[in-house]
Amino acid sequence: xxxxxxxxxxxxxxxxxxxxxxxxxxxxxxxxxxxxxxxxxxxxxxxxxxxxxxxxxxxxxxxxxxxxxxxxxxxxxxxxxxxxxxxxxxxxxxxxxxxxxxxxxxxxxxxxxxxxxxxxxxxxxxxxxxxxxxxxxxxxxxxxxxxxxxxxxxxxxxxxxxxxxxxxxxxxxxxxxxxxxxxxxxxxxxxxxxxxxxxxxxxxxxxxxxxxxxxxxxxxxxxxxxxxxxxxxxxxxxxxxxxxxxxxxxxxxxxxxxxxxxxxxxxxxxxxxxxxxxxxxxxxxxxxxxxxxxxxxxxxxxxxxxxxxxxxxxxxxxxxxxxxxxxxxxxxxxxxxxxxxxxxxxxxxxxxxxxxxxxxxxxxxxxxxxxxxxxxxxxxxxxxxxxxxxxxxxxxxxxxxxxxxxxxxxxxxxxxxxxxxxxxxxxxxxxxxxxxxxxxxxxxxxxxxxxxxxxxxxxxxxxxxxxxxxx
Length: 471
Prior knowledge:
Layout: H1 5-9, H2 13-21, H3 27-44, E1 48-51, H4 53-68, E2 80-84, H5 112-119, E3 123-128, E4 151-152, E5 155-159, H6 165-172, E6 178-183, H7 189-195, E7 198-201, E8 221-226, H8 229-239, E9 266-271, H9 280-293, E10 297-302, H10 309-324, H11 326-331, H12 342-349, H13 354-375, E11 380-384, H14 397-400, H15 408-416, E12 420-427, E13 433-439, H16 445-458
Parallel strand pairs: 2-3, 2-6, 9-10, 9-11
Antiparallel strand pairs: 1-3, 4-5, 6-8, 7-8, 7-12, 11-13, 12-13
């Protein structure tokens, strides 16, 4: 292809698009390159469930003919990507939801997000690993998928994060330019932070979930994970839009407008105590990020509205996943799951009192009103994406980062359905990445992306490359 391997593996979407249109590479060349990298580097990180080789080469050949004929579908045309394996794909490719008893599960059609990316000319090269059933059965350690524990591209003895584990490690290792992840309560933000990539959780309903596994109907969101915030915006623009097959999808159109978003005189806020109870390097890197953003924004420390965020999000999630997986739990197939705690965890959710679920929904309404008023006064609220760096593969999560070390901003953002992004902002314990989280008002993805782009324009953390991924 005439382009050195390292440059190709870690190029942004815009860079790859320029290479395609300059004739430095081709869609089929890119597809073959990333298929091979997934088969070696990606599999070494337990990031791959299925390579979609035949489909990828067919889509790449179509893109090649179209671009040669002057038919350009936009910035994703000819760009390979991977999808978390809870997004349905048409036969012959299975959609396992990360679960051993479902590893041969088939769906007749692509998920809407996959279909829209295909319409934008993107090339699906892989179904990527995930925590079984997106973590809904209560896993407490990294080995919770039949593909094995997600391995961090920065250290082979560290976790890649969940539940979008394969999406994080595949992007972080340069095995795909971008990936689809999903988030219910942190499953994009966490692996993005742990793996040193950019991960965008969109506004609830911005991307159709038709054809994607349901964990929690009122919390689930699909979003992009990529090298840069700009890449995330490009991918979101291709996936977003109303879908009659998903009645929760937003009717308001979305356009990614990077040139029109202001990046000066921003008003940003930081929660009081944002660096309390976090690892030392995590706190130091967050304060350094504030110093960078302070050049283009006013930053104010604020007190957050006082609500029981953790119990609310837990009650909603537990109640909805118990319903979503009731048949699966009743069938006894949970006994075939990988993590021992997942084989029994789902039974308890089935007996959660309806009163607790309804009460959580009532409190959620009050949380939304309070936070909409708060977010109306700021362009973004910032906090460390995670309180810790990626945990060791041999340590239980409850020992390494118990619930009281999980930042409230991630819980709040998912409760109210607001967009947030995690972008790399340095390195911490054991040389592992840390992340900066930026939360915005519902519908304000472009403002969140503008802040993240401004930060990445002043730093180079997103350009760092792990040595582990060079194999």
